[in-house]
Amino acid sequence: MAVEYEVRILDWNGRVLPRGVIPLADIDGPALSLDVGLGLVGTGITGTCEVGINDLDLFNQLRKDYRIAVYRSIDGGPEVLEANAEFLIRWRRITSNGARIRGVHVNALLDSRFVLYSAGTPFTQKSGKASDVIKAFVRENLGGGVSPTNRDGDDTGVDISSLLSIAGNSGAGSNVSLSRTRRRLSRVIKEICDASAANGQPLFAEVYSSGGRLIFDVFPSQRGRDRRAGRPLSRVMGNIIDAELVIDEIDEVTFGAVGGAGEGLLRSIGTAIDRQRLERSPFGRIEAFTEDSIIVDQATLNQRAAALVREGAPKVMYTGTIVSVPGFVRGVDFDYGDYVRIEDFGRSFYARLNTLSVTVRRGVVSDALRVKVDQI
User: Fold this and answer.
1) Residue 195 CB neighbours (<10 A)
2) What is the C-alpha separation between 36 and 12, in angstroms, rounded?
3) Which of 116, 138, 150 is nearest to 190 (CA)?
4) Mean pLDDT for all residues in the chain
5) Residue 163 burial by CB count (10 A; 0-12/13-18/19+): exposed, middle or buried?
6) Which of 47, 33, 105 is nearest to 364 (CA)?
7) Which of these, 58, 32, 35, 63, lies nearest to 48 by C-alpha position?
8) pLDDT score for 31
9) DSSP letters of 68-113?
């Protein structure tokens, strides 16, 4: 099986630059290389891409936030955009030995905004299905729903809907009710995803690319496909090597409390408890407290407390290097973001393929996937 990569450099509108296609063979050349690292969290993908190039004319065309797209093909088949990901160029270096450029995943756009509206307005107080609430926050801080008369300060550059589409409401996730003002947008999205996950309906919100057009959407259940009924990952099956299972309970939290508005006996307090984890040990009650004095709503405080408890869950991490074998090939039988079954170390459990690393050096391609354990 032959795996090949192609890098394309795009402008702000997703158009390929002149000389912006780096042929597959060139990536294997002595002056060129490719590194891609992606991680899947509650807000979708994070990560970077770094490319070595030897084209001065191409280097001089580059501007901040031009994009890197990485395409992968198997055995001469069609080129597929790796993880539907593109990367905003934020770092460039050139020396006598060549140039390197580095980009951050386009999900960084969600880090670039705060919810800059006053408390008690429809722009900060929302309720409904989690995915729809997330999209409302995004529209009002990145898209066509921006309200210049209500948002803090000068609104230059806030609305980027000409470059970023926001998918329509889907009604995915659990019901949520919350108030968020002057918080980073990506943090608000993560809190909503966490609240939905706590109700058994996980969500993954992300900016991705489709034909050079950036799209924001929210995916229910898993980022990729559900392959739990298919062939498992197992050292016995030969499709995973260098496996390791770590169970880290050092920073566990089983009871959380959040202090809201008010003082003394009149202060609103939200609490949450995980009795199942607490009762695993006679010393299992481990408490955490944080403050959020602008929150009045009791349900919102309880959600924040539940998030404290979730974030304090034991860190169970299974890692390994995925090996493509006959009948089990990345991009065909499994891929980044998929939900899979693992059988190893005398255990059987489900996991998401949530971290992808790709390195191309002088013709040698190395793929590594890390998995996140959901149950064990």
Assistant:
1) 27
2) 20
3) 138
4) 88
5) middle
6) 33
7) 35
8) 42
9) EEEEEEETT---EEEEEEEEEEEEEEEETTEEEEEEEEGGGGGGG-
Are the C-beta atoms of 40 and 355 separated by less than 8 Å? yes
Residues 65-82: pLDDT tens digits? 999 999 988 888 888 898
Exposed, middle or buried: residue 65 (CB in 10 Å: 0-12, 13-18, 19+)? Answer: middle
**Look-up: residue for tokens 């891409």?**
49
Q: Which residue has the tokens 């959040």?
A: 258
Taking the model in full, what pTM does it have? 0.78
Residue ranges in 222-297 assigned as alpha helix (H):
275-278
DSSP annotation of 216: E
The DSSP call for residue 229 is T
Q: Contact 275/234 with Cβ under 8 angstroms?
A: no
Q: Tell which residue, 71, 73, 103, has the closest CA to residue 7.
A: 71
pLDDT of residue 28: 46
Helix and strand numbers (H, E) in the chain are: 6, 20
Contact 136, 123 (CB under 8 A): no
| Residue-wise DSSP of 163-182 | TEEEPPP---S-EEEEE--S
CA angle, corner 160, sides to 106 and 49, nearest 5?
A: 15
Whether the Cβ atoms of residue 242 and residue 320 lie closer than 8 Å to each other: yes
Chain centre to alpha carbon of residue 96:
36
Longest dimension (CA), the chain: 70
Secondary structure of residue 52 in the 3-state scheme: strand
340 Cβ contact list (under 8 Å, min separation 6): 227, 228, 230, 232, 233, 334, 350, 351, 352, 353, 371
- The answer to whether 245 and 318 have CB atoms below 8 angstroms apart is yes
Which phi and psi angles does 250 have, rounded to 5°?
Answer: -65, -45
Report residue 15 CA to chain centroid gap. 24
